[in-house]
Amino acid sequence: MNDVLPDEVGRWQRVEQVYARTMSLYGYREVRTPYVEPTGLFVRAIGETTDVVEKEMYSFVHHDEPLTLRPEGTAGAARAFIEHNVSSREPVTRWWYAGPMFRAERPQRGRYRQFYQLGAEIFGDPGPGCDAEMIGMLVGFLRELCVPDVQVLVNSLGGPDTRTRYREALVAHLTPRAASLSPDSQRRLQTNPLRILDSKDERDQSAVADAPGLHDFLDAGDREHFQKLRELLDALGTPYTVEPRLVRGLDYYSRTLFEIKGAHDKLGAGDTLVGGGRYDRMVADLGGPQVPAIGFAAGLERLLIASELAVSSRAVDALVAPIGPEALGPALVLARDLRAEGIRCEVDTRGSSLKSQLRRANTLGARVVFILGKTEIDQGVVQVKDLDGHTQDTLARAQAIRIVVDRLMAASRSVDSRPPTAGNGKETS
Ligand code: AMP
Fold first, then answer.
1. What is the pTM of this model?
2. CATH numbers and ranges of domains, the chain
3. What is the dihedral of CA 97, 263, 115, 58, to 10 degrees?
4. Distance 330 CA to ligand 1 centre (A)
5. 1-56, pLDDT tens digit by residue?
6. Are β-strands 254-261 and 151-156 bridged in parallel, bridged antiparallel, or unpaired?
7. Which atom of ligand 1 is nearest to the CA of 71?
């Protein structure tokens, strides 16, 4: 679990802002659900035999009630969707969320015990149109964050019948080879054999190398759905690779499944930035109506490692520097007037020398210093020192405010109007 110190928070906020904007452009609305839910919700939604439920949940019992810190966002969103009977009011619901998730995993680069996910769900649309749109939207989002080497992997797991038939065939193939599987996969053979397909263990990989392929088991409806998804991704110009062995860790998926990777150089094996897929049975399994759904979650810390977007860490735009004790009052008033104009500023209230106040201005990243001493106050003027342009002017107080407001606003407009991709590796605000 990490602290995020103020110097890093700017990049977090920028990613969150780009995400919120993207979501609203696509008609999603934000939902906020509790960080704690009944343990049973996650067991039913995610699946009893998944790694998350078996090993990674922070669970506790409070007054006889088993509770768990949410390890992901979909189960809580589905619970809220059912509890508030949302489907009776809207045929299609698009929700997004952002916040911390908790998994007791072995920490490594890009893998933490408290981590943040940006996620979304669409309830009520069986796809494949919304599946393709969601994947295309995510690629656009990652481009806006200047994530290099974005790669989309898609697969279809078929519907429940397909999964059952394929599971039987896979078990029949692997049972004679059981002795050569890793201990984990020997166990999974009984509980969750599909997970053996994405095991990284060499013993498992060679056992599944000539296993029957899931795609041979897809029924006509699954095939049509997957074919249409691919056509629509092509229509959107979203490049993708079909990865028949992609199964992912959570149990609830059916039909469309996808992963988006990026910045492999920086993230190595942990380069999966986004994971998502369709979970058409989950809402009914949790006691709600039969409503199809699709969703995804992106790891925020990984996006920050992957993104080449740099954000200014300027704490303020301006410093107001009073010289002498009688200048402190007028300095506080001047700063208040500047803030009313939208200028972020700090007053150096320590009573220190001008030299030390200028050093402070540099540390804060201020562009302008307003210097106020007794002479300035008597004459109703202020000295304006432009730290970027290395100029210093004595101006009437009102004129000083106007000029600085115009200059700073123009500077921030020229940054905002820059296309995000052009800010690659440079300051963007
Ligand atoms: P999942 O909910 O397991 O499908 O994961 C979706 C995304 O969340 C992953 O692709 C990662 O980007 C991120 N993620 C999952 N687990 C962690 C973790 N322990 N630490 C950081 N990010 C994670």
1. 0.89
2. 6-159+226-306 (3.30.930.10), 163-218 (no CATH), 318-416 (3.40.50.800)
3. 110
4. 52
5. 999 999 899 999 999 999 999 999 999 999 999 999 999 999 999 988 888 998 99
6. antiparallel
7. 2
